[in-house]
Amino acid sequence: MRKHLSEEIVERFQLRGLSRQDRRIIYDHMLACEPCSRRIADSRREAAGLLALCAHFLPGSEDEPYHLNFELIEAYVSQKLTNTDNATAEMHLEVCEACLVEANDLRASLATVQAAASPKVSEVDSTKISGEVPGLRRVLFFGRPIRSAAIAACIVLACLIAVVIRQQRGSEGSPQEMTKQSSPSPAPTPLQSPRQPIVANANNGSVPKTNSTATEALRNKTPRNSSRAVTADLIVLNDGSYRITIDRSGDVEGLSGISTHTREAVREAVVNGSLKRPDLLNELSGRDAVLRGSAMDNETVRLVSPENRVLLEDRPVFRWTSLKDATGYRVVVGDEHFRQAAQSGDLPGTATQWQPSAPLKRGMVYTWMVMGIRSGEALGSHPSSAASKFKVLEEAKVKELDQLKSSSPSHLALGVFYAGEGMITNAEREFQLLAQQNPDSAIARNLLKQIRTWIKVQ
Amino acid sequence: MEAIDQSLLPYLHSVNEGNAQDCLEHILEVIARPIIQPIVQRAFQNEFTDYRYQAASQTADDVTNDVLVKLLTRLRTFKTDPVQNPISNFPGLVAVTAYRILTDLRRDNNRQRTNLEKQIRRLFATSQNLKIWKDEQGDSICGYAAWDQRIESAGFKRIYATRAALFAALDELRVGKGDPNTADLILFSLNRIGRAARLNDLTGVLVSFRATRTSTIQVDEALRARPELALADVQAGPLTSLEMRRLLDALFQELQKLNLIQRKSLLLNMTDCYGFGIEWFVFTGIASEDQLANLLDLSVEEFRRLLDHLPMTDNQISELLGIDSAKIANIRKAVRDRLKRRRRAFVIEKTE
Prior knowledge:
The complex is a heterodimer.
Chain A: H1 7-14, H2 20-32, H3 34-40, H4 43-57, H5 70-77, H6 83-95, H7 97-116, H8 120-132, H9 136-141, H10 145-169, E1 199-201, H11 213-220, E2 234-239, E3 242-247, E4 252-253, H12 260-272, H13 279-284, H14 287-290, E5 303-305, E6 309-311, E7 318-320, E8 328-334, E9 340-348, E10 353-354, E11 365-374, E12 377-378, E13 386-392, H15 395-407, H16 411-421, H17 424-437, H18 442-457
Helix pairs in contact in A: 2-3, 5-7, 6-7, 12-16, 16-17, 17-18
Chain B: H1 9-12, H2 17-43, H3 45-48, H4 53-80, H5 90-126, E1 130-134, E2 140-144, E3 156-158, H6 163-174, H7 182-193, E4 197-198, H8 199-213, H9 221-225, H10 232-236, H11 241-255, H12 260-267, H13 279-283, H14 289-295, H15 300-307, H16 314-321, H17 325-351
Antiparallel strand pairs in B: 1-2, 2-4
Helix pairs in contact in B: 2-4, 2-5, 4-5, 5-8, 6-7, 6-8, 11-17, 12-17, 16-17
């Protein structure tokens, strides 16, 4: 009969002083001897053993969290990991959202960069250029100093001629004018047609005039005008990270993910060189509703914003100028059916702005007014108050705008969208950026000029 | 026995669940929170003063809540066994826990930032049209390659995009429902601003932008679907022996789904305070010797011989498996994270 475990070895176990040999003896014995098994693994020690197993198999609360470093993520995305590392990475990505986001982001980012650097557009345009003026493209692509200087001189000359012709014509150029404004250097993709960097005077930090030496030097490296004549069948505009082309048939290329409606509006704006003024602007600028009381009256609050505008935000900030001796103000917002949509309650005399706590219903035209309060009394409910109209953009249009911004952040498309919805300040900003990117484009200038006219009228 | 913090005695001596909950609420809200908040506010004070206010405010709230959850777990362990898990200085424990979580957060932020900067460099290296260069001050500047035109006229200097301008540009994307990737963000901001940017600024802005768009807390799919169970394992308190046994049954099944390298990396270096390791599977009857041998792809005889060499160090395991020893530790961490998910599922089942 097999002997039970000796008291000495059990004691060594209890004192946590087992040797390797002891462990083997205990292990072998416990497999066969129930009483000794109970002596070793009694309820307390069994609990300790269970706890030890759990502690070993689970991360401790003080453990530093494990994450994949960039090199591992990059190798995983590029499928360059060994089988072992790949299995570890995959197992970790199953449970770690942060690393999964990083891996997916890297994969998508690489695809974006590679797609943006794709030579597709470049090849198409280059073919057209070289097909119509043999040799021009080849000359433009050389980087040798003498030829560069000659090219620069040609460009300056071309610019001067263009200016003289334009002055003689006495116009800003027909809307049908065809332009080609991208750099002829190997750069026609979104990535390859960057905007010119801004330089400033070191003394005062201000942006120099466009004819400054530095700016000219930079401009001369991208001979925008030189290829205008050779692309008579195209309208080409640099636009943010895009280059938009519109061919003779009116097909717009270079904008993705925009609605048919917006695409058509963009095409019309570029081909016709004009924007259709939305009727809504007339409604918003209806003068009879704008001011009540005398504009020169010291007792009339002057409204600053929003004034005759379409707004993206549904909780606009209402701003006004302070009124002499006013001890308080009250803002009231009414909808087009003259129902009260929001009101501020009594605001202190120092207040010159207020934002409603709840959003206004979208798609509605509102009228808002501010009443000055003096010594607890409103300064006349109508004669001493001012009112102005605004509209909050419809939900569907907000979605369309979100889509437009995320899928195709184009100044042209955004400008046309804003103009169409009556958001003329936003439209002006987009067209201004478009004009900055296309300083020689009559189309961009016309769009900007037109929207500024609307703003003046409004 | 170590002295117990006096402020915890009412909780320790509470006899019913309702009373214990009241005591816990008092401890966490009246004692702990006033200690945590100034620590967290000091840590975020720079962010509170600029355009990152909203993101910083949210993160500060998250940190405060994380500290409270940690304390809750610790208090429950304390109540279950005050001798083994005494708390002699509760305010000190609160402060240490808060600082530890802030340290973890900083470490994680640094990791994210480092990874992002490397990613930006990788993306710029991928495209011949993008470039990172050094300016006269030695700062790394990133932008279109065409922008790297050294302007030598003495009267002019280049202006780089400010952090505020980068934030403003990206804010336009914030309202969008799309999910732009990092390359989209970089290209959008460069085109929007039309200027090169310091790599450091671009990285910082992108980190903040991403932080506000993605959850900082990792959530399992099960918890995503059932957010009310998020605190289940905290509220469940320490497991009983029977529950641990059931959990280990589940973990053992999970172990069998791992590959051999993963199983060996985890099992071969286990040891407990008595000097035993995976033998506890056999002693407690959770697994038989055959099952353990199978798990390690060994015969029973080979398994018994192996026991004489356990626990193994990472170097020994790496030699046995023929892979780098640093990877052994990482494999083990990855496996533990996976098993943790199984534990959480177990706790959720238990709660239900």
